[in-house]
Amino acid sequence: xxxxxxxxxxxxxxxxxxxxxxxxxxxxxxxxxxxxxxxxxxxxxxxxxxxxxxxxxxxxxxxxxxxxxxxxxxxxxxxxxxxxxxxxxxxxxxxxxxxxxxxxxxxxxxxxxxxxxxxxxxxxxxxxxxxxxxxxxxxxxxxxxxxxxxxxxxxxxxxxxxxxxxxxxxxxxxxxxxxxxxxxxxxxxxxxxxxxxxxxxxxxxxxxxxxxxxxxxxxxxxxxxxxxxxxxxxxxxxxxxxxxxxxxxxxxxxxxxxxxxxxxxxxxxxxxxxxxxxxxxxxxxxxxxxxxxxx
Length: 295
What we know:
mainly alpha; 15 helices; elongated
């Protein structure tokens, strides 16, 4: 006897005859959701994860992944709710605390985000990504000593990540700016410089570290170091507008009119393409005209 297939019906053939496929389980929907998510089909993955949690309300991994899928589609309130549901099921679920922290931070809810990062680290003290992001958030909140301590914990786990050294340098620089004691300020600037240099040892093409190193040398009154760092940044990124602009001023301060003119001209040529640089291009053109009058 022939079987007439209905739309969407799947048949599984057994040795003794024909058997209907069993209905999909929540785990099946979860696996299918993961496959869709991996392919970038986030809306599809949302539907599949929803079926998974509908069939199994205590499926914490499915709630977590559903939150991640909502995040990819910028449905942030739903994302947060899914992570909270996963955490109701397992309060020690470190990855849910971490993703919830990221979402809350993006929403500007810094205190709540910090609490979630701390819960992540309570569950997984050696979670490097959580340590780094906690350090960044603490810096944004101007909790600079805590930020430094957090980055140092991250470096104790892995000293070879250039971005951690770079971020730690930024925090030392922020502390130096508000230091009231000159000796303390100088010591913080030395630490800032050292962290950027370490970042560059690990990743020699880290042009942002070169640029920040130049700024630190500027604040420390080290004009030669400042010029060298800007030139290093430009060797990596040839048409770096900010570096060209500041380097032209540095050569002016050094008293080398020819070099200053050279870099002002380069800056004007590069920066004239960008609307955001327009006010600075006008300043550069005035400086250029003034200096060319001296030549």
